[in-house]
């Protein structure tokens, strides 16, 4: 009997413990250093001048449009709304065109797409908080583009439901790491201009 119970316990996709931490929490822990590095890179821009804010938006414009195109979030999350148009509108209002994007390899599979999506949609949450720091009179269509009510929770639930086990999580983590690295490259390009 003990052997049957042990066999049942190890028969799930996660090995010995078949009740893992939800995938979104796994991603948050596994990518903490990348997240912190991106926060530091973009935090260096500041919003104290129009030029600094423009460069901040330019850096985002180097990654977000290509990320949205390669991830194809609408095929993963019902009702997903892009932000690239709002970013282009904000830059146009500041007298700037959309810049060339960074090089970004397409995600290799659906798990990598989910990992990358976790990053770009997490940045939407941060953007809403940052929008409060933008000086009055400057455009904030991009930073103010919130999830619909309950949208972030639904996205995390869909991410968790898509998780099929350790190999899937490893691929999702690779996708998230790649996206954080692309954000850092984008920030470095516009930080160098300033």
List keywords for this structure.
single chain; 194 residues; mainly alpha; Heme Oxygenase, Chain A; 9 helices; 0% strand; globular; disordered N terminus; Haem_Oase-like_multi-hlx; Heme oxygenase
What would you note in describing this structure?
It comes from Sphingomonas sanxanigenens DSM 19645 = NX02. This is Heme oxygenase. InterPro entries: Haem_Oase-like_multi-hlx. This protein has 194 residues and is mainly alpha-helical. It has helices spanning 2-9, 23-30, 32-43, 50-61, 64-71, 84-93, 110-131, 151-162, 166-193. The protein has a single domain, classed as Heme Oxygenase, Chain A (Up-down Bundle). The chain has nine helices and no strands. The longest helix has 28 residues, at 166-193. The model is unreliable at 1-16 (pLDDT under 50).
Radius of gyration: 19 Å
Q: Distance between termini?
A: 69 Å
Structural class, from secondary structure content?
A: mainly alpha
Work out the strand percent: under 5%
Under the CATH scheme, the architecture is: Up-down Bundle
The domain tally reads 1
Shape: globular
Strands, total number: 0
Helix content: 55-70%
CATH topology: Heme Oxygenase, Chain A
User: Biggest β-sheet, characterized?
Assistant: none
Query: Which regions have little confidence, pLDDT < 50, spanning 5+ residues?
Result: 1-16
Number of helices: 9
**Elements, N to C (H/E):** HHHHHHHHH
Provide the CATH superfamily. Heme oxygenase-like
Mean pLDDT: 89
InterPro entries: Haem_Oase-like_multi-hlx
Organism: Sphingomonas sanxanigenens DSM 19645 = NX02
Protein name: Heme oxygenase
């Amino acid at each position: 009997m003990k052997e049957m119970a042990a066999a049942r316990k190890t028969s799930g996709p996660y090995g010995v413990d078949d009740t893992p931490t939800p995938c979104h929490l796994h991603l948050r822990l596994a990518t903490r250093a990348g997240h912190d590095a991106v926060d530091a890179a973009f935090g260096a821009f500041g919003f104290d001048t129009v030029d600094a804010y423009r460069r901040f938006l330019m850096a985002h414009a180097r990654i977000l449009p290509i990320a949205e195109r390669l991830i194809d979030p609408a095929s993963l999350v019902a009702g997903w709304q892009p932000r690239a148009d709002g970013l282009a509108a904000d830059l146009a209002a500041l007298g700037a065109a959309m810049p060339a994007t960074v090089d970004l390899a397409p995600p290799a599979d659906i798990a990598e797409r989910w990992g990358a999506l976790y990053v770009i949609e997490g940045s939407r949450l941060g953007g809403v908080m940052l929008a409060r720091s933008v000086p009055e009179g400057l455009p904030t269509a991009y930073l103010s583009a919130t999830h619909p009510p309950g949208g972030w929770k639904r996205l995390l639930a869909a991410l968790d439901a898509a998780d099929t086990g350790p190999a899937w999580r490893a691929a999702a983590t690779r996708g998230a790491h790649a996206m954080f690295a692309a954000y850092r490259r984008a920030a470095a390009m516009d930080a160098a201009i300033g």
